[in-house]
Amino acid sequence: MEKTDADLIEATLAGDQAAYGEIVARYQKRIFRVALAVVRDPAEADVITQDTFVQAYLKLDRFEHRAELETWLTRIAINRSRDSLRGRKWVSLSSSEDDESPAIDPVDEHPDPERQVASRQLQKAIDKAVDGLSAQQRTIFRMRHFEEMPLEHIAELLGLRAGTVRAHLFRAVHKIRKELRHWFPDVKVTKESLG
Amino acid sequence: MSHYSEIDMMELYYLPDSSPEGVRHVAECHECAVRWAALEAKIAKAAEAHRDRVDALPESFWQRQRLQIDRTIDAQAGARRNRGRLFSIAAAILVAFIAGALMLQRSIGIPSHDPAPVVQTATGTTAATVGDDSLDVLQASDPWESEQLNSYQDVVEWESWIEESGGTS
Questions:
Q1: Which residue of A8, A127, B69, B106 is 20 to 30 Å from A53, comparing CA positions?
Q2: What share of chain A is helix, strand, coil (3-state, %, to 5)?
Q3: Residues A151-161: pLDDT tens digits?
Q4: Residue B56 sits at the chain A interface (C-beta within 8 Å)
């Protein structure tokens, strides 16, 4: 029978490091995926994932079981990812990450060339547009876009109110819409506003 | 009749409650519904590609990551233990030093720091910064404080009276 998170936490706190290894194995993929969704760089996401588990281990005795362990870990990872995005603006002048292709190519079991090209184009356009957003807006947009998280969940993870997250997302989408207009020259008829 | 572009629909996609009117229009308009489906497919594809990108990573990647986490935790825990040990050693040294200093003070009888006594001499005041024994010697050598003068006390007082009254009577 599989041990619960609470069992593994208890064992870890009693000094059983193998139990913590099980926690890492259970959630590392999920944490890496969230970090990658936010920072969009596999090497950085790897470092963030490692930091998240080390930090969680050192503070495990303060985990109060008010949230799920997965939520707690995700929260640490997202905060760390957001800090990483904030720090990026200091090195962005010398970096050329925008032009780099992803280190790992997407895998598609049933590739549809036309759909793939269209989605890649949109993805590139979105990535470029998103780079112009604030760290907070980028984090929220990417969590919604790549992880398809509901606003309430994003709010819980970021420790914000759902209304605040909604406002950030609204502003982010508004900016992206502006940026993306020239990517879709084929669109002839457009409703001016949705509001 | 106006329609929504895919870009306009992004707002509807991410914030469906931002425009009930827009949602209604997309549901009723065939042209917009087609665009909506295309947008939805593209965005879903992006999320899928993101998930696939992670799923495609080999097991060796996760093993290496776990190993790295274990090593960092070991190093951090070791550093914590060392910090604790160093602190204990430093505290023990400090306690031993204080205890040694107290014992030394008691054994050689170093006096506590009382205020230095002031000795009145015939030529003026001198601050004595020596121990109690030396002070006794100094006090004994003071001619005005000597016992020999005690028997002449009355004479000294009478002579003082003469001077004060101007020496006329």
A1: A127
A2: 70, 0, 30
A3: 999 999 999 99
A4: yes
The C-alpha atoms of residue B124 and residue B139 are separated, in whole angstroms, by 14
Residue linked to tokens 């290894």: A21
Pairing of strands B124-127, B118-121: antiparallel
Sign of the Cα torsion A49, A46, A36, A41 reads positive
List the beta strands (DSSP E) in chain B: 118-121, 124-127
**What type of residue is B166?**
G
% pLDDT > 90, chain B: 15
Q: Which residues of B are less than 8 Å from A20 in CB distance?
A: 73
**Residue to test with chain A: of B1, B26, B29, B70, most A Cβ within 10 A:** B70
- Which residue in the set B7, B12, B54 is minimally distant from A32, CB to CB? B54
Picking from A106, A87, A104, A97, the residue whose alpha carbon sits closest to that of residue A48 is: A87
Q: Does B6 sit within 8 Å of A115, measured CB to CB? A: no
Helix, strand, coil share (%) of chain B residues, nearest 5? 75, 5, 20
Residue where the block lists tokens 């776990």: B66
The total number of residues shown for chain A amounts to: 195
Q: How far is CA B115 from the centre of its chain?
A: 36
User: Does B4 touch chain A if contact means CB atoms closer than 8 Å?
Assistant: yes
How many angstroms away from the CA of B28 is the closest CA of chain A? 15
Q: How many CA atoms lie within 13 A of A193 on its CB side?
A: 1
Chain B interface disruption, residue of A54, A149, A166, A171, most B CBs within 10 A? A54
**Looking at this predicted complex, what is its ipTM?**
0.75
